[in-house]
Amino acid sequence: MVSHYLNMKRNFILQAGCIVFLLFTVSHAWTAEAADLSTVSEPVKASDQAAGGNGSGDDAWEDENWEDEWESTDTIADPLEPLNRFFFHFNDKLYYWVLKPVARVYAGFFPEELQIGVRNFFDNLRTPARAVNCLLQGRVRDSSEEVARFALNSTVGIFGFGDFARDILGLHSADEDLGQTLAHYGAGGVFYINWPILGPSNFRDSIGRFGDAYLHPYMYVDADWEVIAGAQALERVNYTALTLGDYELFTETALDPYAAVKDAYQQYRKGLIENK
Amino acid sequence: MMRKIILHQKSLLVALLLIMSVFTIDTGLSASAPDNPMDRLQVAVDDILKILQSEELKGPEKKGERNQLVLNIVADMFDFKEMARSSLGQSWNTLTPEEKDTFVGLFTTLVEQRYIGKIDSYNNQKVLYKKQRVKGDNAMVYTAIVDKDLEIPIVYRLEKNKGKWLIYDLKIENVSLIVNYRRDFDSIIRKEQFAGLVEKITKQIEKSETSD
Lengths: 276, 212
Hints:
The complex is a heterodimer of chains A (276) and B (212).
Chain A: H1 2-40, H2 42-55, H3 60-63, H4 66-71, H5 81-109, H6 112-125, H7 127-136, H8 140-155, H9 164-167, H10 178-184, E1 192-195, E2 199-202, H11 203-213, H12 225-242, H13 246-252, H14 257-273
Antiparallel strand pairs in A: 1-2
Helix pairs in contact in A: 5-12, 6-12, 7-8, 10-11
Chain B: H1 2-26, H2 37-53, H3 63-77, H4 80-88, H5 97-120, E1 126-135, E2 138-147, E3 150-161, E4 164-172, E5 175-176, H6 177-211
Helix pairs in contact in B: 2-3, 4-5, 4-6, 5-6
């Protein structure tokens, strides 16, 4: 038991080291990119903005440029496109052939209220990661709210099945993860990755996901990997049962579903990063 | 003592006047409903919900009639021409007037299909109207729909066209419909030009119509 613990600890330090190293690479890649842009075409625009900003100090929100504000998502590089498209189709088949039929049966057995409870339960397990990431972004208040939510929902909310903290005390969850923390400190997405099974992501968010896994209770319970894999499959099936039809509608009214999903991921993450 | 009370009353009066003036500036216009984007949106959404909840229009055999009534309201709320133009980006300017007309028609049907598809799954979810921001002829209306115990934010962007507020984009969970279609269309145009895009949309529409 002790040796197991030590092993885990050593592994943790090793992998934490890897993450820090990767972080540096990412942030450097990003600064290089930014420097590139600023030398080519930005100076004129930047000074324009500065002048505009000074003139409208009174009601900043009224004078911001809505057009830019609304549509300023940049496209992300996609050097792995052929591979990404392959896994997109793989995941698409996985959805229609496995996930959807299973989720339909599941939804037939378990009422919606229970599905919501299961979703809350799994969501509650991600609270430690959210609390730490709030803290890393300097949001002490949100972080302490997450801690309070975890304490309340795990107990009074019965293992997180109920969202007591939100319903009774109005404590809302702050949807933060390591990918957003990295973005907060200037890291870009670098390039798009469509993982098999896991779905759309990018380089930065993949590292984030990996790092957040260390703050997940799964890491600290003495369970077999089969049990953990089973829990993850249940979470996925439950989520699919709650959102049946959404994926179909979105991909069926898109012309190039791969491109549409890639962009939707970009826009969605940007919204989360900017906390809109 | 008396002086203090009078002073107090005076400040109350000032506060009251201030509040009233704020109301006349902000919501006083709402008396003439269409001039306020949030009210106009709310009226339209309520009308759609009435159709969806109507006992007379229930059942799968009434689906066509129901959808047509919803689409009439949608057509009155959305600025499809502006949306189509915006979703094509730069490519719009290279089109002939006939091509533009064709594209607006196809784009309208495509968006209608997505809208109708979404609305079919409506199951008494609550719609919340949070706030609006108006600047001249532009407005944003912040709403949310409560679905399965979660609040999903939907922001509408409106523009006043000939005295009428019209929607020309919406963001669901921060994903803009127009930006998303632009990236989608771009990906087709880059490989197959505009002709390829028209062909793809036509096929897509036929496919959804036959699957209904």
